[in-house]
Design brief:
Keywords (chains A, B, C): Glycosidase, Hydrolase, Metal-binding, Zinc
Protein name (chains A, B, C): Beta-galactosidase
Strand content of chain A: 15-25%
Radius of gyration of chain A: 26 Å
CATH class of the largest domain in chain A: Alpha Beta
CATH superfamily of the largest domain in chain A: Glycosidases
Family (chains A, B, C): Belongs to the glycosyl hydrolase 42 family.
EC number (chains A, B, C): 3.2.1.23
Structural class of chain A: alpha/beta
Organism (chains A, B, C): Paenibacillus rhizosphaerae
Distance between the termini of chain A: 23 Å
CATH architecture of the largest domain in chain A: Alpha-Beta Barrel
Largest sheet of chain A: 11 strands, mixed
Oligomer: homotrimer
Number of helices of chain A: 17
Amino acid sequence: MINDKLPKIWYGGDYNPEQWGPEEWKEDQRMFKLAGIDVATINVFSWALNQPDEDTYDFGWLDETMDRLHKDGVGVVLATSTGAHPAWMAKRHPDVTRVDFYGRKRKFGGRHNSCPNSPTYRKYSRLMAGKLAERYKDHPALLLWHVSNEYGGFCYCDNCAAEFRVWLQKRYGTLDAVNEAWNTRFWGHTFYDWDEIVLPDGLSEEGEGNVSAFQGISLDYRRFMSDSLLECYNIEAEAIREHSKDVPITTNLMGTFPLLNYFDWAKHMDIVSWDNYPSLTTPVSETAMTHDLMRGLKHGAPFMLMEQTPSQQNWQAYNSLKRPGVMRLWSYQAVARGADTVMFFQMRRSKGACEKFHGAVIEHVGHENTRVFREVAQLGEELGRLGDTLLDAVTEAKVGIVYDWENRWAMELSSGPTVELNYVREVHKFYDALFKQGIEADMISAQADFSKYDIVIAPVMYMVKPGFAEKSEAFTAAGGTFITTFFSGIVNETDLVTLGGYPGELRKLLGIWAEEIDALPLGQYNEIVMKQPYGKLTGSYKCEMLFDLIHAEGAEVLAEYGSDFYKGMPALTVNRFGEGKAYYVATSADSDFMEGFLGAVCAEKGVQPLVPELPAGVEVARRVKDGRSFLFVLNHNAESATVRTGDVKRRDLLSGVTVDGAAEVPGRGVLILEEAE
Amino acid sequence: MINDKLPKIWYGGDYNPEQWGPEEWKEDQRMFKLAGIDVATINVFSWALNQPDEDTYDFGWLDETMDRLHKDGVGVVLATSTGAHPAWMAKRHPDVTRVDFYGRKRKFGGRHNSCPNSPTYRKYSRLMAGKLAERYKDHPALLLWHVSNEYGGFCYCDNCAAEFRVWLQKRYGTLDAVNEAWNTRFWGHTFYDWDEIVLPDGLSEEGEGNVSAFQGISLDYRRFMSDSLLECYNIEAEAIREHSKDVPITTNLMGTFPLLNYFDWAKHMDIVSWDNYPSLTTPVSETAMTHDLMRGLKHGAPFMLMEQTPSQQNWQAYNSLKRPGVMRLWSYQAVARGADTVMFFQMRRSKGACEKFHGAVIEHVGHENTRVFREVAQLGEELGRLGDTLLDAVTEAKVGIVYDWENRWAMELSSGPTVELNYVREVHKFYDALFKQGIEADMISAQADFSKYDIVIAPVMYMVKPGFAEKSEAFTAAGGTFITTFFSGIVNETDLVTLGGYPGELRKLLGIWAEEIDALPLGQYNEIVMKQPYGKLTGSYKCEMLFDLIHAEGAEVLAEYGSDFYKGMPALTVNRFGEGKAYYVATSADSDFMEGFLGAVCAEKGVQPLVPELPAGVEVARRVKDGRSFLFVLNHNAESATVRTGDVKRRDLLSGVTVDGAAEVPGRGVLILEEAE
Amino acid sequence: MINDKLPKIWYGGDYNPEQWGPEEWKEDQRMFKLAGIDVATINVFSWALNQPDEDTYDFGWLDETMDRLHKDGVGVVLATSTGAHPAWMAKRHPDVTRVDFYGRKRKFGGRHNSCPNSPTYRKYSRLMAGKLAERYKDHPALLLWHVSNEYGGFCYCDNCAAEFRVWLQKRYGTLDAVNEAWNTRFWGHTFYDWDEIVLPDGLSEEGEGNVSAFQGISLDYRRFMSDSLLECYNIEAEAIREHSKDVPITTNLMGTFPLLNYFDWAKHMDIVSWDNYPSLTTPVSETAMTHDLMRGLKHGAPFMLMEQTPSQQNWQAYNSLKRPGVMRLWSYQAVARGADTVMFFQMRRSKGACEKFHGAVIEHVGHENTRVFREVAQLGEELGRLGDTLLDAVTEAKVGIVYDWENRWAMELSSGPTVELNYVREVHKFYDALFKQGIEADMISAQADFSKYDIVIAPVMYMVKPGFAEKSEAFTAAGGTFITTFFSGIVNETDLVTLGGYPGELRKLLGIWAEEIDALPLGQYNEIVMKQPYGKLTGSYKCEMLFDLIHAEGAEVLAEYGSDFYKGMPALTVNRFGEGKAYYVATSADSDFMEGFLGAVCAEKGVQPLVPELPAGVEVARRVKDGRSFLFVLNHNAESATVRTGDVKRRDLLSGVTVDGAAEVPGRGVLILEEAE
């Protein structure tokens, strides 16, 4: 339980009373009650208010807010206010503002605006976090610490350059090791002095869009930036811990946000929290995957849905409204996948600046007679009824999908073979194929323990870090099923190619050799032709983008290419390895293939779907706790759907209705079915 | 009359003899006469020539030019030559060049190149204007002063930043008021010192394409820049007035150019003039609207067509030739809508630099035996025959369409609900629906007196400035018809939302409440379904982009949405308010709806079209003077068209032919029909 | 012969042993032998290795490499290593790095990274070239000097600005002449002091994509940059010549690379060499044209194919594999068109940085059992068998096509009449029409001697430099056929329009006057309607983009426009001029027209195709030497094709088979048919 002061699914969100006055505060109080709001995230952007100059701190407004919320029965997620620095600080200490990709010094403005290696920023953010912790550590409203806000962004200033050199010295020891790791003999880039190393930006090695002349440098810069921002988090977290010993600390993450290695970050966070903002075209299975990834950051521990919009966003191109029922449906999707909170950005809509068209629980009209508020209040009532039933319940997947930020960085920095390779899209193809069949999966790191899984999938495992190949071999030898794809096993952790034939360190496990890699524009297809039926797979399927030209070296060939000069070469292979099997998918396949292939592999391993058959657009997920099992059925269709739930009788926690064998789920409806295990 | 020295429609244009020598001057003289040219705009880009260094002025060439033109019977529009500063000035006084959106100091080059707050630029441009006025104030050729050229562009230098702070102090008085106006509590942007305020550029609050984190700051910066450039105009105008008391002063505007608030500017100009450069795809009704807007800047006073190309442009992607007859047709379009001059850029084509492929009266071939020259000469002959008949004639529209630059800035800076909202396009939809039915409209400012109109349309009136709502209510209460649309009444003049329910200050007048605003990608349609026929409106019409979800609060519902979850909610309402009616169009409708709707509203108010029925592609407009009425019929089709002109007999000023009931207008032909009132 | 030490078609390529160790060197040795490799380009990017600091030079690794290669029978193309400067140099001497288009000082990184006017770069590159020449001038492995690598790129630093002024003083003498040449009276740009002239960049006169306010300035800057880089080449070449008197010197060019005037460069090079990297969509006839252009740089002398990929590239969007047979086919295409070497980038694939996914003879797998290596080895064996048979053989075309870099620069800088005009595409349309009919062409400069040709084609000869018109007239008067097109004869060498009617200086020769130029978006067509059949031309053909509205002034009209207001005006004319004819194609015609038109013109002049009839996708070319004639037949189709080769019996050099009248050429197959003359 995040904090036993509030033993239920937390319900509330970002709240900025400092933008308002007593009249609105009174209305907030009344409407929070109507909506069942029991938690508020405050102080996110109040640095300038808390500290009007170098030496003055003024927490009067915050004292009052904390007290008022407590009196109203609303707990507090207390942010440290360091998400954007004050204007006076930028004016007096230019080191706090960033330098951009083209070497331009930024001025005061926006957010994500502090250089992570700025001495001033580090000094004052540490001080602020410490003062807040000291002051509020025992406040009865306090539920959780929320450090800064949505960390992200790069800086290219001289302080960062100097710290990068220190970071490199720590990582590599000698300049020779750096030259070796980056292969600097290429293009005569040998460094003879640490000071010759400059940051890889638009004036040195890089171009916009992850284009780099030296992948090794650019990759290390990304590691360094993720580490630098994490240090900022740690500085504040440590300052808090000096005073507040037990209240958990988090910061809000952003799903598959590319710039930060969240697996590293999660080690330093007490609980993972994240902000869920799907766009108009995000598939629901991608949102599900991202929830699972956030759950995976701390090995399956429940997480917090820190932000979502109750209605619409403002920063998309087209900010469509969440259709009636969708906010509730997506809230339960989060809970189904491990969230123990349902929180919004934000409680009351701002009246000025760039987020004034972002939806809120309390809209500009200011009263409760809105569709949005009614839906919020209905959900609040339901969550109140659910109490602590679901808290700390976990997921028990037998399939693990590897997701690795460093692999993503390296792959997206790659010059060739194609500009179209998108890591998230390729991982999602595997996830989606399981999702549609109601098969549970965990999203796991490349460093994860594989032994708890029956099947481990590592899509496009371009970078193989030390120990990964050995671990995968051991897992497979012990009976596991390992799956990987084209463009895997290519480089080591510094982006140097593993010589001797692709897929490098994974070659033995997979029993193949990839001689060449063809790349074609999207829309130019080859075919995967099955040699004989495998599960439901039979006949031929479309594939595109990249095509490994592989030779079986011990592996069995399950399918071949159907055309072009590599017609007849293997497109899908399986290698028996010890007690297990290792599959290689040599190209980017269509969704029919993916579904058939993963269905067959799961069947082979006895990994069962959660329900016998799943209508299109219906999602299932399960959380388990103290021997109780909760099956979530989420109908993402506008129309109702009939879902066969199997032989066990179950009871819907929300409606109390008993389901026997099949349930009719209304359009955008949700069931939480408890079964006897 | 602009200047009674030349009591006819002026005919001529930009003339740069300083690029040529005596041989060409002689030819110019001969060919001007052949073409009926009687006015030349000179000295537009001769600063470097007039002032070769800090202290030297040399107007010898200009004396000669003025005298020569006068001798040849050509009047002079005398520009002040400050449209581009000299190279020596940029070299010696770097403050004259601008700093761009990314903080980069510009070097010498291009035009629009002077910082509007540069002390050097202001000093030398004032001196230049004064010297010219002193020298030529009594020159017999002088007809008009033309200050600088096509003002525009932004600067982000330190001088501008300092002046911005002064401007803010004047506007807001206190820093508290600034913080309040900009809602700086959002993202902790509170300013404690004026010097903390920086310009909103690509290094602070903005991104390219009107993207801003703080709309209030960006909006004020746009106001400040418009004011700064206007100050540059005023500095020169005042320097001229010290010497030249009566000759009118103008500068050439650019239609719907986004950066300058021309309604403000026009207050300081003696006559409005503008440069008309439609692109290959500009609808003729948009050009007509822009002429009407230019006429509206000074409440209906005649204006000058200062520039148009006789043949083709050079800076479009595809510079197609004006087809035979089109130059004449579009010249009369300007006159029909209030222009008392027809002028070209330019008289003789340059032989070098970027405008050498811009059309001219005298082409590179140098003689008169060209299609372009023949068409120019024919028009010159006609304008000579028209004499002063049309001068000072006015338009008597009963429909006013509000066009507001500040509203446009605020709306286009908005983050959400859609990136597709284009102010000019939405205004034009209304204009076009009237245009196609031959109904006259004035383009008016938000500050205009509404009482002379029967119908006032304020499309997408996102920003409601002080007094606007009261004025609209009074207008409607007194029997007027007021029309506005979705996304209106949202913010006040500093872009702060009017709380309590959209459309804010307009809510009472309209009798509705807009609870939510849906946004969908272009091409995803809903339908406007009429509850019963209204005028010709019946059945259903397509609508897209933004969809206000409104509730009638007293208003009558004329049409509803046809699909999606807001099917059945109002899409078109009318509210009886005092003696009048207020209509609300809740979404962006198709052109069939627009035409039917405005046709019905006009019929209801007894606003008559100029002709009983208008064939597609034919434009009508009317100017009235001393009890005489001139009906312009402009056939934009390549083929001839028959236009019914009603029961009155009329005479075509151009051909002398009498029209009785109907006229056959040749392809691209023009009639100017005088009727007895 | 390039160097009589190696009297055969050289076979090898770029080799970077400094990126590897003894183990790989040994394998290289073994595999070079297997593949018939006899030449290696080394030391291309080893500056940092050769010179670790200001004063230290260390050629130990190079001594060993040279000796080892020699021992193994591999000759050396010795690069000077100055293609990218060392990191220490950038650190200690910032003048070596460039300033970019927006005035941003670049840091160390990438390649093409040295300012061409940097005193430091010039000093150290001269020293390096001299030291290398002194050390290796007599090394038995040395075959050729290779200065720097793929020169290119612009710099906008202060050193360049200062040198630009010196360059201008040399070119123009006086500032008055500069002002005149650039027409600076336009926009008041008159310069009164040399120091007022700034480089035309994104902060002064230019915008991205060849957009300029002053074409004359921008054009001279391009000339200056081409000259500045050429000076860098000359500095090194002269330093080499001080020691190495006879070994030829080259640098690798890049085909139609836009930035350098290669006709100027070739005058200073002993032999032309170039890097051939067609993209996925480059037509084979464009590659052929580029080979012919490279051959044309030194008036038909054999050239070197310095780089091509054996398999795939890495820097295209989609790096597809060369299909089986294609590498061999394209290698022979180079030979067919004049190459006396077949060389690859690169011998062994790098294991790190941005080119690690660029194909190589020795792939990452490291052994010879790859498709790529087998194809390389097969070709190596064939080239060995061919010996010196083809060396120094030349081409005997009777058609010359003018290609002019300055014309391209000026045309692409032009503002108007269309953004779509692409010089290479227009030239290629003519080349392709000949290519498809098996008619040989030379690509020649505007300064070339026309007298050896029967037909000279100068497509879109926008800029007519001094002497060109006179030469073209003399050529035609003497019986030649001259062909040019729309948008020709417009400006002189400083981009000033030739007044008095287009096509200016070419008007007399062509017997026409182009009164206007219409421009329409691509996809909007007019038609070329033949007045009577001409050769196979009959009926009507599509044309687009630009449309000259011409009048025949003595010329005969062969075809007219089919629509729009210029229907019936001439679209194709021919003017009898002395003993010859001058054709004018007034618009951009479709490929059917082009083929028919050039077929007819060639037939008229008795210019014969190499074979009686050519199947689609089959290329023919001929080289001639010592009375022997070699007809290359290259089948670019995947399927076999039958080619009629005429009455003479011929023998295929590759297979030894005799061909009598017709040959079946396999898919992607090659014949080299020797005939008795």
